[in-house]
Structure formats: structure tokens, C-alpha cells
Specification:
Length: 444
């Protein structure tokens, strides 16, 4: 199994080599402009940064934090950290200074890359004076130890390190809604397993377009956007701000979009603000005209090319799902946790079953414990919790991840969640706090 799956950096090098001039990342800039970065340009910048990182005298496998809202350089830095042989730790940019300090201390971070932020003066208090900081493009004004331009003055590395299947690649901290945040450790192999088996469900390819509008610090967005683009080759557009969400949506015209229910509700509210719900229902019910009206409505929103629409992070109401179905968009529900790369269950196209989430993803084993807790096992399961071996033992039973969710399974393998256990290993993903932060529609 481990030899048949290509690791993330290997897939990136392949795209960098085969499609150097193809657009990879599209970053909104001031004045309504955008910066387009090709695979070769992304590779060049990541390789230069990796060279600089290698010369900083850090031990191999050092932890390096990324503190930024979604942007092109978030992904570039993640690649550079891996190329340099280190471990990336993404921080939620909406965290308080105290929470940032807690994660940086617990993870033993050796450096912090700082990008787009809303409240740098407030959050900067969480970074200790002795911890080196690197300012990324579009970062707020302030005092930093290094700037991106300095890193880009170094020559790009010429080798193509890929890491080992079981090598620690990233530590993703949960929101801490059930206690102190836990650092979920994922290897290159767990990331590769999830995206290799998961991407085939939707058939994503190089002609697809993705819009990144949930935090990349959350595993769901990391997999659906960063990993999916590296493995399948679609172009990634970034949302500039929650206030420009609909402008960004129209610019991207995504063919695939992942969002929490709050984002899908925001789009619905935008439609209702122009066409009241009752009138919309009448218009959609008119034979022939209704289909034409729905098509024009999708086009006005930037959803006319959308073929994959996924909702996760919280239960999707049947009313909201039905509303999108009337608009000609099949909204699929997904379920997963940070601890398994968000790779567990999803509703397949054309197979919706009211009240049920969907069936397990490929190569995922499912069972119910005696108390009804849903247990899942796959190659996407975490290595464990960073520096918390007892918590790791509590979360895993014979390799099965304890989800903390009570559930039911039917004869077709569909799962329905019926409640939460009082004691559980972690929240559903994206984390509750992050999902609520995204209800406005822009990345945070």
C-alpha cells in the first residue's frame, strides 16, 4: 500500500515538470487585480525559501508555524517547509494571542511565517520575543526578523526531496472545544492516502477550478484545496475577504466548492435578498421557464460551472439541500475529523438518502461500539496526538478511531449521526469554532 501511493511532494514535482506554465494559484490583489502563479513559479519560490530554511541551522524535522489567512503564499510556504525537511504547523488566524502562544509553545515551533491577518497588533502578543518571524507578501505592517524578498534572494534547491511515507509532515491543532487544543500528527502517507482514494470520488482534474474560502489551517480545506490541487491539478482561486466573497465567487466560477452550511446559507440569503423565497419558488415551478431561470440564477452567482458541491463541518438541513436541488445544484454532505484527514463518509452524486450522511469513503472500515459510538479505520488515520501518548491511546481502539459521535449504520453502509458522547477524542471537522467563523463566507 505504501509503495503504490505517491507522496505530496512527488506529485508536486511531477506537475512542476509536466505543466510548468499552467496556472496553479490565483491571488486577489489591491484594486481588483489578481496575481497568477504557474506551477513553475510556485516551485521556484518554494525552492528558494527551502534553500534559506536549510541554512538556518535548524535540526531536521523542526516545527515551523504558518500564521496567515488563506493566500497563495500559504501553500508556497507549506511546500517550502516540507522541501527543507521540516514540519508545518498551521495556526488559525482567528485565534487570540493567548491561544497562539499556547500552540507555539506546545508545538515547540522554531519559526513563524506571518501572512495576511486582520489583527496583527493584537495577535502578535502571542509570539515570544525570541521566536524568529518571517513576513510573507500581503502581511500587515510591523517589525519582522526576515522578509520574503530576503528568502527569494537565495538560489532554488536543485534536489527533489519527497520524505518518507511515515514521516511527520504536519501537526494540526484542534479548536480545543473539548479542552486544551490537541496537536493531531499527520504523515506524508496519511495525507497521500486520503487524497489518493478520495479524489477519485469526484473525478477532479486539471481543467477544474477551486475557490478557497475556508481556513487552510483546517484539515478539510487543506485536503479539498491544497492536496486536491497538487494531486489532480485544478487551479486554485483565493477569496480576498468576506465582503468580496461574491466577487471572488464570480471570478473563480468554481467547478468544485467545499463549504460549511453557513456558506451555503449565505449564498441562499443573497438570492432571497433579490428574489423573495415565495416568488423564487413560483418562478422555479414554471415548466421550462423554471429551468432557464435556475440556470441564469446560477450564472449570476458564479455557480454556472459548478459540478461538485460539498458541505461539511456541521449538519446540513434537508431544507437547504432541497433548495439547492431546485436551483440545479446537488449539495453533497461529508463527514470526517481532523484525526482522519476529514476522510470518512460522503454522499455520492445521485445517491442522497434523507436523514443520512452517506457511505464510507473508499478503503475505510466502519463499526459501531457497544455504546453506539462510530469507529472508523483507514490509512488516513493520524499518527497520534503530539506529546500526548495517553490521549492517543484513548482515541484509538485496534487502529479504529473513536469519533466521539453516536451513530447508526444501515444495510447499504449509510451512516446517520444520533448524538455525541460525553467523552470524545475531538470535534468534527472543520472545527466548530472555525465553521462559525466562516458563516460570513470569507476565509479567516
Amino acid at each position: 500500500m505504501t509503495t503504490a501511493i505517491s507522496l505530496p511532494l512527488s506529485r508536486f514535482y511531477d506537475r512542476e515538470d509536466r505543466h510548468p506554465d499552467k496556472c496553479f494559484l490565483v491571488q486577489p490583489m489591491a484594486g481588483g487585480q489578481v496575481q497568477k502563479l504557474s506551477w513553475s513559479e510556485v516551485g521556484n519560490q518554494a525552492r528558494r525559501a527551502a534553500h534559506w530554511l536549510r541554512r538556518q541551522g535548524l535540526p531536521q524535522g523542526s516545527v515551523i508555524a504558518i500564521l496567515s489567512r488563506n493566500c497563495a503564499h500559504w501553500i508556497i510556504v507549506d511546500l517550502a517547509i516540507w522541501m527543507a525537511g521540516h514540519v508545518s504547523v498551521p495556526l488559525n488566524p482567528s485565534l487570540s494571542a493567548g491561544a497562539v502562544a499556547q500552540v507555539l509553545e506546545h508545538s515547540e515551533a522554531a519559526m513563524v511565517f506571518v501572512g495576511r491577518l486582520d489583527d496583527w497588533p493584537g495577535i502578535s502578543c502571542g509570539i515570544s520575543a525570541g521566536l524568529p518571524t518571517v513576513a510573507l507578501p500581503l502581511c500587515p505592517e510591523g517589525s519582522f526578523d526576515f522578509r520574503w524578498d530576503e528568502l527569494q534572494a537565495w538560489s532554488p534547491i536543485q534536489d527533489n526531496p519527497i520524505g518518507r511515507y511515515d514521516q511527520l509532515a504536519t501537526i494540526i491543532y484542534t479548536s480545543g472545544s473539548t479542552g486544551r487544543p490537541k496537536g493531531v500528527m499527520h504523515s506524508f502517507g496519511t495525507l497521500a492516502f486520503a487524497i489518493t482514494h478520495g479524489s477519485g470520488i469526484f473525478g477532479l482534474g486539471e481543467k477544474d477550478r477551486l475557490l478557497s474560502c475556508l481556513p487552510l489551517c483546517c484539515v478539510a480545506e487543506r485536503m479539498f484545496v491544497e492536496m486536491a490541487s497538487i494531486y489532480a491539478g485544478p487551479t486554485v482561486f483565493f477569496a480576498e475577504d468576506q465582503d468580496t466573497f461574491f466577487v471572488d465567487l464570480k471570478r473563480a466560477r468554481p467547478t468544485a466548492l467545499f463549504g460549511v452550511p453557513g456558506i451555503w446559507s449565505k449564498i441562499q440569503a443573497s438570492v432571497h435578498s433579490k428574489t423573495p423565497a415565495a416568488r423564487l419558488e413560483v418562478l422555479l415551478s414554471v415548466p421550462l421557464f423554471g429551468r432557464l431561470f435556475a440556470r441564469n440564477m446560477r450564472k449570476s452567482l458564479g455557480l454556472d460551472a459548478l459540478r461538485v458541491a460539498v458541505s461539511g463541518g456541521a449538519p446540513l438541513s434537508e431544507d437547504l439541500r432541497h433548495w439547492y436541488q431546485r436551483l440545479g445544484v446537488e449539495l453533497l454532505e461529508a463527514y470526517g475529523l481532523t484525526e482522519n484527514c476529514g476522510y470518512s463518509h460522503i454522499c455520492r452524486p445521485g445517491q442522497h438518502k434523507s436523514g443520512w450522511i452517506g457511505q464510507q469513503c473508499p478503503q475505510v472500515e466502519v463499526r459501531l461500539a457497544e455504546d453506539g459510538e462510530l469507529l472508523v479505520r483507514s490509512g488516513a488515520t493520524m499518527l497520534g496526538y503530539f506529546k500526548q501518548p495517553l490521549k492517543t491511546v484513548e482515541a484509538l481502539t485496534e487502529g479504529f478511531l473513536r469519533t466521539g459521535d453516536r451513530g447508526e449504520l444501515d444495510e447499504q453502509g449509510y451512516v446517520r449521526l444520533t448524538g455525541r458522547l460525553k467523552e470524545n477524542p475531538g470535534p468534527r471537522l472543520p472545527e466548530k469554532a472555525s465553521a462559525l467563523a466562516q458563516a460570513g463566507g470569507g476565509e479567516r
